[in-house]
Amino acid sequence: MNVTVNVNGKPYTRDVEARTLLVHFLREDLLLTGTHVGCDTSQCGACTVHVNGEAVKSCTVLAVQADGMDVKTIEGMGTPGDLHPLQTGFWEKHGLQCGYCTPGMIMASAELLKHNANPSEEEIRYHLEGNYCRCTGYHNIVKAVQHAAEIMAQGGQSGQAADD
Amino acid sequence: MSTLKPNKVLRKKVTRRRVLIGLGTTAGVLVVGVPLALNAGRPALVEYVVENGTGPQEAPFNPDLWFEVTASGITFYAPKMEMGQGIHTALAQIAAEELEVKPEQLTVKQADTARGYAGGTMFTFGSNSVNALYTPLREAAATLRELLREEAARQLGVPAKNLTAAGGQFFIAGRRDTLSYGKVVEGKQGEWTLPDKPARLKARKDFKRIGRAMPRVDFRDKVMGLSSYGYDARVDGMLYGAVARPPRYGATLAAATAGGASAQPGVSKVVIDLKANFAGVVADSRTRARNAVKKLDLRWEGGTNVNQAEIDAQVRAGAGVVVRRRGNVGAALKQGTRIEAEYSTPLVAHAHLEPLAALAQVAPGKNGKIEVWTATQYPQKVMDDIHAALGKDREILLHPTQLGGGFGRKAGQTAAVEATRLSAATGRPVHVGWTREEDLQQAFFRPPSHHILRGSVSSEGRILGVEQFTASGDIIWPASMPEFVKDTIGFDPGGVLGLFMPYDIPAYHVTNRREALPVPTGFWRGLGVFPNTFAVESFADELAHAAKMDPLDFRLNNLPDTEDGQRLRAVLEQAAKRAGWRTPPPAGRARGIACGLDVNTASAQVAEVSVENGQIRVHRMSVAVDPGMVINPQGAKMQAEGSVVMGLSSTLHEVLTVKDGMIESANFDTYPLLTLRETPQIDVDLLESGDTPYGMGEPIIGPVGAAVANAVFALTGKRLRDLPMRL
Ligand code: FES
Ligand code: FES
């Protein structure tokens, strides 16, 4: 069955089976492998994307349900010269190690910052509870989101990460 | 890339640990490959010099370290796998230090098996990457620097000593112009020859990169979603595979037919090989392959029906092999205050976030070349398994991808063998990516352990004697090793890590025993370190309380006056200081301390806990680590923090149980990991006691469980001796 999904601002039409999950549609049909799969069952958050502006675990949505919708993935967040503040934040504050959870963390955090420009540590922890990370000590992730909030408050998209 | 072809061996000799090198040149490119050989327990260097013309087969060893120098910079092919531990960055800064280049002038790429020695250096395990490569990599980089310096001197017509290397170029004494490394390579005519004298390594006081934070070389791609993991490997024309799984460990495929699978949409092939216990499906999407594999008609036979209670009964400390016997423990236990305790740790999973995955492309013909892209810690193991499955004469080129976590689980990569079988059967590239359920159940696990300790302390708080019995499922012994050999040896070397109490104990007997379990067990971060340290450092705390002494003072009182003892003392004192050990904890909270020594790294931790709504809550972990020497403080701290979180997850949550011969949990709903919300404040202090960097990936996980258990005891008076902790 034909579906058309606007992904990162571009319409893609593909013939997919009804049972195809959005995450597989993105990764296999569109070759957007930045959205990761950790569990296929809505429990790890690695596959988080935005559907019509809301953070959604893309393994819980069928591709056909996204027909006609706007999907944003990590690939649509920034460009090498113009990273999204969250990408800068995770990079500069070392909010990752293997990086497998990172796209999901960034997409989930983006939703938080949309509704709450200056989240407290507690709010970040609460909001990201559904995103597992097996590598980090987690609290750099909190710092990364706070750092991104600061960059955004200063109106900045920052392009270059520099380590401390 | 043709410039990377190493060339014919001209001369080769094993030197006294001196440098290097394979030189291969084409115009404007200098390629240097350095083979390492194991010698006297550390990598030594084997020299060989090559000439243009032929392929790598003729090299006596595949080079372990590859550099490529061009006008645009230097590329270093990292021989270790990046699984989040930051090894590519650490190696880059070691190389950049001696090369005298800025980090941005050095590009790090993952070596594949054509540019690296899959069997040796590429195996990424045991927290040993930095430790093993620190000196050889410096020697190689320094030699490359001197090679360039001599050639620059020749081109400039000045003595080499008049040239100072910095920022990827040579500054010329008394002149304003400079000559970049790239220009030196461009201007080179003819063969390169190695300098006669070994290159001098920089003094530590002159280090500009080692010991400082450096931007992670892998983070830009990772935050952009551009990094490629095993699950992400893609080539044109690829198909997707799925494989049938036995319902019980050890079950064999007695009969199999395609059943309804062939008729499923998109299925291009059903592959059945009873001898290999293999039945799989190839289809044009992962969804279709996974669906079709359920329609295969399979009859599994045999295997184990074991249940958890039987495993618990099997892993009981008692008889075994005496691995330490010092003093008369029987007599010692008759003196002072005597206590006895039993501890246990359960079967757990690695739960790396990226499930096993691989892409394989097998060229047609019986001996068609095999190309594999996969996330593995141990390329040689994957290649051996593929050779065993498809014939040993086939050439294999393995491209290690980024790993979405490893923790020992990716020492093998079954998905790579499966993808290779399916590709060979279809003639198409095939990707196999496991589900979380497959990853959790069709795995090997950290084995359960059981510990019995008896000990006595004097009224002055000195440990008089300890008798210790430990049992663990196998860790290192491979399934392929004959049982009688394992039984003759009697214990598994992996189970010895973290086993010994680091204290000065006049009478100390340790008996260890291995158990071959019907459930697959094996490597897990730090091997025995986490289970053993939990037991011995909980027991040390019990001894301290038996002696009515402060647990920190008790440890300091019993540490030996050796180098290790002093290093442990230092980390204990630092962790205690950071935690405010000598000041009362906030109301409703208490602290516990624990320490350990693993792969020469000393660490100590203080946990601060409370109990809320009947649940243990960890508020703070204060960690002090002495890894000898630190290459990248930021990276080292991150490794420590990650170890604490993984250790806490094991301490508070993780347990697998077996029913009817299979792990019961299939996903994170019944196997929850520690979440961000539960994670405490973690402070890490790094101490340096020498000039050799030891490991950072595993040692810190050791004391986590005991620190928490000891804190819970201090708070509640309840001694929790079984993991995961239940109040
Ligand atoms: S893959 Fe979607 S939540 Fe884990
Ligand atoms: S960085 Fe590896 S799972 Fe988060």
UniProtKB/TrEMBL annotation, chain A:
<keyword id="KW-0479">Metal-binding</keyword>
<dbReference type="Pfam" id="PF00111">
    <property type="entry name" value="Fer2"/>
</dbReference>
<dbReference type="InterPro" id="IPR036884">
    <property type="entry name" value="2Fe-2S-bd_dom_sf"/>
</dbReference>
<keyword id="KW-0411">Iron-sulfur</keyword>
<dbReference type="GO" id="GO:0046872">
    <property type="term" value="F:metal ion binding"/>
</dbReference>
<dbReference type="GO" id="GO:0016491">
    <property type="term" value="F:oxidoreductase activity"/>
</dbReference>
<keyword id="KW-0001">2Fe-2S</keyword>
<feature type="domain" description="2Fe-2S ferredoxin-type">
    <location>
        <begin position="1"/>
        <end position="77"/>
    </location>
</feature>
<dbReference type="InterPro" id="IPR002888">
    <property type="entry name" value="2Fe-2S-bd"/>
</dbReference>
<dbReference type="InterPro" id="IPR051452">
    <property type="entry name" value="Diverse_Oxidoreductases"/>
</dbReference>
<dbReference type="InterPro" id="IPR012675">
    <property type="entry name" value="Beta-grasp_dom_sf"/>
</dbReference>
<protein>
    <submittedName>
        <fullName>Carbon monoxide dehydrogenase small chain</fullName>
    </submittedName>
</protein>
<keyword id="KW-0408">Iron</keyword>
<keyword id="KW-0560">Oxidoreductase</keyword>
<dbReference type="GO" id="GO:0051537">
    <property type="term" value="F:2 iron, 2 sulfur cluster binding"/>
</dbReference>
<dbReference type="InterPro" id="IPR001041">
    <property type="entry name" value="2Fe-2S_ferredoxin-type"/>
</dbReference>
<dbReference type="InterPro" id="IPR036010">
    <property type="entry name" value="2Fe-2S_ferredoxin-like_sf"/>
</dbReference>
<dbReference type="Pfam" id="PF01799">
    <property type="entry name" value="Fer2_2"/>
</dbReference>
UniProtKB/TrEMBL annotation, chain B:
<feature type="domain" description="Aldehyde oxidase/xanthine dehydrogenase a/b hammerhead">
    <location>
        <begin position="224"/>
        <end position="304"/>
    </location>
</feature>
<dbReference type="InterPro" id="IPR000674">
    <property type="entry name" value="Ald_Oxase/Xan_DH_a/b"/>
</dbReference>
<keyword id="KW-1133">Transmembrane helix</keyword>
<dbReference type="InterPro" id="IPR006311">
    <property type="entry name" value="TAT_signal"/>
</dbReference>
<dbReference type="InterPro" id="IPR037165">
    <property type="entry name" value="AldOxase/xan_DH_Mopterin-bd_sf"/>
</dbReference>
<dbReference type="InterPro" id="IPR012368">
    <property type="entry name" value="OxRdtase_Mopterin-bd_su_IorB"/>
</dbReference>
<dbReference type="Pfam" id="PF02738">
    <property type="entry name" value="MoCoBD_1"/>
</dbReference>
<dbReference type="InterPro" id="IPR052516">
    <property type="entry name" value="N-heterocyclic_Hydroxylase"/>
</dbReference>
<keyword id="KW-0472">Membrane</keyword>
<keyword id="KW-0812">Transmembrane</keyword>
<dbReference type="InterPro" id="IPR046867">
    <property type="entry name" value="AldOxase/xan_DH_MoCoBD2"/>
</dbReference>
<feature type="transmembrane region" description="Helical">
    <location>
        <begin position="20"/>
        <end position="38"/>
    </location>
</feature>
<dbReference type="InterPro" id="IPR008274">
    <property type="entry name" value="AldOxase/xan_DH_MoCoBD1"/>
</dbReference>
<protein>
    <submittedName>
        <fullName>Isoquinoline 1-oxidoreductase beta subunit</fullName>
    </submittedName>
</protein>
<dbReference type="Pfam" id="PF20256">
    <property type="entry name" value="MoCoBD_2"/>
</dbReference>
<dbReference type="GO" id="GO:0016491">
    <property type="term" value="F:oxidoreductase activity"/>
</dbReference>
